Known about the structure:
Layout: H1 3-12, H2 20-32, H3 38-47, H4 54-64, E1 105-115, E2 122-131, E3 137-143, H5 148-159, E4 171-174, H6 178-181, H7 183-191, E5 195-198, H8 208-221, H9 230-246, H10 258-269
Parallel strand pairs: 1-4, 4-5
Antiparallel strand pairs: 1-2, 2-3
Helix pairs in contact: 2-3, 3-4, 8-9
Amino acid sequence: MAKSTYAYIVKHDDGIDKDAECKAAITAIKIVAPAAGYRQVTDQLHEDGKRINHKKVLRIMKELGILSTAYEHQGRKYSSYRGNIGKIAKNKLNRHFYTDRPYQKLTTDVTEVRWGAKTKNERGYFTCIYDMFSGEILGYEIAMKPTVKFTLSALTKAITKIPSNLGYRTLVHSDQGFQYQTKQWQNNLKDNSMIQSMSRKATCLDNAVMESFFHLLKSEAYYHKIINTFEDVCAAISLWIEYYNNRRSKTKLGGKSPVKYRLLATQQTI
């Protein structure tokens, strides 16, 4: 080693961890959101006013051994299709998932949620109404059976949050699940001047937005936790949705949470 190199190392090696502050901030975020990946952590640091490159965040998380593994779990997909028991609506969304207006394009679906410390053989059902503008969850429901009433409950909660003076109609997209073919569901949409849209049969990509959200929900809300009862899974999901809507940053939203992004967008259009 060159003498000058040795002298430089000795001079600058003061035993102080220059990343200590960053490590503390990253660890604090991971305590609140243990399933968060390095990009989500980076966005949250930026929201907190800390300017740090995502590559550095990745390096530190590797050093600390806190990289997320939650997304490696693959669950089984639930299908609510029971054949043609009612009216099948046209696919008016047609995979045009983008919208620049809140409440203009909503999507919904039903998925299984499982619990049980070892086998995870116990199951219930989760449904929600998702706004494609911001990714905000406008209404959701968790139940032991995927009934029509169960899906209507989530829709009713969402409708109460949609302003009556939008100036445009709301489209609600779903798959061809039996719940969405019923007169109860379709009449509820008509009564609220909403447009119904359905995916094509056995074409999950027509509702890829919802599939992606369900994977995110399960990965972050409870896959990495010990869930023993239906009450436990309900509590875990409810806490996560509150965090997701109001505090979880999303890169495609400029590092904002769904609610903050919507509020900023609506303020700019006023």
